[in-house]
Design goal:
With about 150 residues, the protein is an all-alpha fold. The chain has a domain of about 100 residues: MetI-like (MetI-like fold, Orthogonal Bundle), CATH 1.10.3720. It is about 85% helix and about 0% strand. It contains six helices and no strands. It starts with 6 loop residues before the first helix and ends with a helix.
Length: about 150
């Protein structure tokens, strides 16, 4: 005679097995990790102390530059796309709708990879103006334009 488990009992057994597997994986990682090497590679306090004041100012400057340039590019492109979406010409509306849905549907990280890797591979010899700043501004602007055009 076989005993059947209720739905609640099956769920409890399933959760218990999942927790056991999770704990086993964490313990395995903790045991197998080379902690000395990790500490040597990632936890160097004196290196952090040497970099501390200027790494914060550099990061702050880059954040402000990326934000402002991405916002400005996104605002200009978003305005154009929004006007296209309101146009009485059907192909403009279609292109704007596809653009908005495409760039809102993809994660921004994929857009950065596309702008930084795929565009230079597809068009060799063509460089995006501004170097890294230009690539980041373009990626942020493409994503921001889709959201601004939608709203």
């Amino acid at each position: 005679m076989t005993s059947r488990l209720t739905r609640r009992q099956r769920r409890r057994v399933s959760q218990t097995v999942q927790y056991a597997v999770f704990v086993a994986v964490v313990v395995l990682i903790a045991v197998k990790a080379d902690w000395d090497r990790l500490q040597n590679q990632f936890a160097q306090q004196r290196l952090a102390e040497q970099l501390f004041p200027e790494i914060i100012t550099t990061a702050l400057r880059n954040t402000v530059v990326y934000t402002v340039s991405g916002f400005l590019f996104g605002l200009v492109l978003g305005l154009v796309v929004a006007l296209m979406r309101l146009s009485s010409v059907a192909p403009y509306r279609w292109v704007a709708s596809v653009y908005i849905e495409f760039f809102r549907g993809l994660p921004a990280l994929l857009i950065f990879i596309f702008v930084g890797v795929a565009v230079p591979l597809a068009f060799p010899g063509t460089e995006i103006p501004g170097g890294t700043y230009g690539k980041v501004a373009l990626g942020l602007g493409l994503v921001a334009a889709a959201y601004m055009a939608e709203t």
